[in-house]
Amino acid sequence: MNPENYLYLSALLFTIGASGVLLRRNAIVVFMCIELMLNAANLAFVTFARMTQSFDGQVIAFFTMVVAAAEVVVGLAIIMTIFRSRRSASVDDADLLKR
Amino acid sequence: MNAELTASLLWLVPALPLAGAAILLLGGRATDRWGHLLATTTAVASFLVGAAMFVGMASRSADDRGVSDILFSWVPVGELQVDFGFRLDQLSMCFVLLITGVGALIHVYSIGYMAHDPARRRFFAYLNLFLAAMLVLVLADNYLGLYLGWEGVGLASYLLIGFWQHKPSAATAAKKAFVVNRVGDIGLAVALMIMFATFGSVSFAAVFDGAPQVGESTLTALGFMLLLAACGKSAQVPLQSWLGDAMEGPTPVSALIHAATMVTAGVYLIVRSGPVFDLAPGARVGVVVVGAVTLLFGAVIGCAKDDIKKALAASTMSQIGYMVLAAGLGPAGYAFAILHLLTHGFFKAGLFLGAGSVMHGMDDETDMRRFGGLRTVMPITFATFGVGYLAIIGVPPFAGFYSKDHIIEAAFGEGGAKGLILGGAALLGAGITAFYMTRVMLLTFFGEKRWHDGTDAPAPHPHESPRVMTVPMILIAIGSVASGALLAIGGTLEHWLAPVVGEHTPHHVLPVWAMTLIILAVVAVGVGVAYRQYATRPVPVTAPEDVSLLTVAARRDLYGDTVNEELLMRPGRRVTAGLVAVESDGVDGLTGGVGTAIARMSRRIRGWQNGYVRSYALSMFAGTAVVLALVMAVNVL
Predict the structure, then answer these.
(1) Residue A92: closest CA among chain B residues belongs to which residue?
(2) Which of A12, B189, B496, B622 has its CA 20 to 30 A from that of B472?
(3) Which residues of A touch B (CB under 8 A)?
């Protein structure tokens, strides 16, 4: 199969993720969209690795996964805390710094 | 005292009064009770040291009379090496004796004069400081040391003229003296710079040795700068305006400024810098013009003043004009300038101390129109003042006769039109001097008693001053009688000064006896006119209004202050007003404008920070997209 198709898929997933981050208000959904963007990037890396016959892209994909895992831990903890104190998971409500 | 001992003790002469000033100023109230005695003691001790040195110097041969002592290396900077050194030669010896001698007598007099002043200690501290600064000035062996003394004299005069600083007029007069002196000081500062640039040194020896190898234009510039300095300190036209106002100080200060210190500094500077002026004829012409103009200027002002101290101040200006004129004549006149300076030191001190004594007895009245008939109630003051009067108008055998005649003769001796103009001015000045001094004498001591005419104030009870004041007056009067004959007959002072200022054989236009007769005749005319005016007619207690234009001008110091105001003060104010406008509208406007613009812009930009995460994310995406697009565009191209 033509590896370019993977790249098209990757671009599509990234766009869906980016639109989600920009358009949705629910913090959990925004968070999932970020994961989607990261995985789209991973897919692109792996595809390029396959196309160039090198391991570099695959190695970077592993790094991305590690970062994503760490990010999930911290991000979910923050969202949990905000939800507990404000009873809302909307990103628009968390604007204390502006006040 | 031999040469080595003199050299090793030289520092003591200025250090004694300086120590007195330091103790009195730092000691504060604790020294109130005995401060005046300490200050007088240091002045007298300084005089005794100076006198011992004089005896030692006179006993040595003329060639090794000069003594030098280097105290420490003062300014060791690169090419400029200045040592703090003193040099006592025949010229500075004259000054040391005059400054400490007359200065010490004025100290003694002040004990009585300032007896009831609550700040007497401070007064004596400043007097001591004045002496110390003046001694540094005349003893320094380089121009930088001279400059130190010069500025010290300026400071001390400022402090003393404004001594009664609760009087606004005294504070203003002090400020005026300081500012006008500063103009002259600039001249000395520039002269120092010229010396360093030209000779690489500021010591007398290096400058005078190097002078013949330097172009005339440099020396002329140097001479004019030194002349400017001398004009400031010696109150010569055009920097004369401070002297009259300086009368706001206590009278002993006036005596000190006018006789022993301060105004003589300019004459000293010119005579000391003789080797420079000798090689710069242009600068010398400047000096004689300043001297001749000032001697007439001061004399004319003196005729119209009703304030006894201001009349004497104008006369100082005129007499210093004589000295500057003589100094400008070169080797022909240096010795006579110093001769007149020394005799003037005596008789002017005597006149001022006498004026102070009169004021002391007349409840600080200074208007001569309210004096009159004081000779019977103040016999000692009358006698000493009278001796000073006879000396200043030049009646033989009093001191002024010798010194002034010599200057007039030397001026005529220049020859040609120059000699006639200078000599004529000096001769005319002698006549006017006789007029205004006779006027002072007649108004104060003769005629009707006008002490409280036309006022309701209680009548003053004039009385003779205490002995602590009269004794110095008597001693100074003796000096006014004897100093002229002692120094002039046989050319004693000329021979004494010859190793420093050079020899000169006088050139007589007329035989000496004829010249003397002419001068005495002119003086007699002056006295006669004054006698007719003020002794044979009643003197009104208020100054008459219907007087000639010249009198009106002279009462206002020949418009000296007006000229300063029109030429310097008004344009200066306009310049400052312009600068303030540039500053507030231009500089402030620029900085303020930048601030306002940034504030306005920030208010706009602040709207972008709306607090919504998604809008921040959008800007991040947009930014990333733009950067990526640029990178790709660059790669493709």
Answers:
(1) B612
(2) B496
(3) 18, 21-23, 25, 30, 91-92, 94-95, 97-99
